[in-house]
Amino acid sequence: TTNMERRAFRLSPDVLKLDVTEGTNIEKRPLLTVSIRSAFGNYIVVARMFLSHQRRVSFRWAFCVALPRLLGENWISMVKTVMTDGDSNEIFEMDEAIMRWMPHAYRLRCAWHIVFKGWQRNC
């Protein structure tokens, strides 16, 4: 996270969108991106983290240790909405992070991930 990304988050801390991609790097490690939507409607990535795997311990570290340190504990508490995909490990650990760091936030599941991944699994 750069100072510019931290500044962008501090200007629009209301909504965080989290997404994990796989197979996009030479090590084949999951890449977690955290983005916001600016007041101008642009999506801006404010944090990127390589995870060792997509198990709960990696998400716990990302959400409860790394994010508050990267974006600032006081600033992360201003988040009102967190959008995640349907991964149960990610959801569980994000709910824990919301209780601890984002007391005024609620979590939404991304409809695209739910529908698209459902189609992939069942068709």
What is the fold's blueprint, element by element?
Blueprint: H1 3-11, E1 15-21, E2 31-37, E3 43-50, H2 56-71, H3 73-76, E4 81-84, H4 88-101, E5 106-109, H5 111-122
Parallel strand pairs: 1-4, 4-5
Antiparallel strand pairs: 1-2, 2-3
Main features:
alpha/beta; 123 residues; 45% helix; five-stranded mixed β-sheet; globular; 5 strands
How is this structure best described in words?
The structure is a single chain. This protein has 123 residues and is of the alpha/beta class. It is 45% helix and 24% strand. It is built from 5 helices and 5 strands. The protein has helices at residues 3-11, 56-71, 73-76, 88-101, 111-122; strands at residues 15-21, 31-37, 43-50, 81-84, 106-109. The chain has a 5-stranded mixed β-sheet. Helix 4 (88-101) links the parallel strand 4 (81-84) and strand 5. Helix 2 packs parallel to helix 4 (88-101). The radius of gyration is 14 Å and the shape is globular. The protein starts with a helix and ends with a helix. The relative contact order is 0.17.
Please identify the oligomeric state. Answer: single chain
Give the averaged pLDDT, no decimals.
88
Radius of gyration: 14 Å
Give the spatial strand order of the biggest sheet: 3-2-1-4-5
Q: What's the β-strand tally?
A: 5
Overall helicity:
40-55%
Shape: globular
Assign the structural class, choosing from mainly alpha, mainly beta, alpha/beta, alpha+beta, or little secondary structure: alpha/beta
- Give the DSSP E fraction (strand runs of 2 or more residues): 15-25%
Give the N-terminus to C-terminus distance in angstroms. 39 Å
Give the uncertain stretches in residue-range form.
Answer: none
H/E order of the elements?
HEEEHHEHEH
> Helical segment tally?
5
* Largest sheet: number of strands, sense, barrel closure: 5 strands, mixed
